[in-house]
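The protein record passed on for reference:
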Amino acid sequence: MKATSFKRLGIALMATALMVGGSAIAKNPMVGGAAMLESKDIIDNAVNSADHTTLVAAVKAAGLVETLKGPGPFTVFAPTNMAFEKLPAGTVDTLLKPENKATLTNVLTYHVVAGKMSAADIAAAAKAGGGKAVMTTVQGETLTAWKMGKDWYLTDAKGGKSKITIADVNQSNGVIHVVDTVLMP
């Protein structure tokens, strides 16, 4: 082999290594101690997160599993177990009762926006909106995203704030952004 052939082979191998390395960098972050696979849907990933067991139980109680396993795409602002623990004592237990299914569904669908909105999409909408991105939820009311320092927050209909703690967890049918507070319509 000529030196130029070795050089081309070396460049090709370096390019391959960069592509493999680049895709590794683009992987989803771990959530709740579990890998979040882009090939899985929102529900299949959420059930693996130790930080989202309350959310998964609530989605099941509200009968929203099949919807969130559907093609979407959906943007889900997913509250952690600690977010649910911030609610007044007894709230989660009350919401999970069958007679409160409509209220629970109302709260959960307030955390979902139709379409896939990455952090970059939210930032672009905020820039176009004078610093705030107003998003209409599947529930019908709006959430407002805004930035303070390096962090993004959501303001709900009641004026409550929730911080996006992990952004851009891509799913086969949308994207999840982990939030630290339950949003209230």
Observations:
- Helices lie at 3-25, 42-46, 53-62, 65-69, 81-85, 91-95, 101-109, 119-128.
- The radius of gyration is 20 Å.
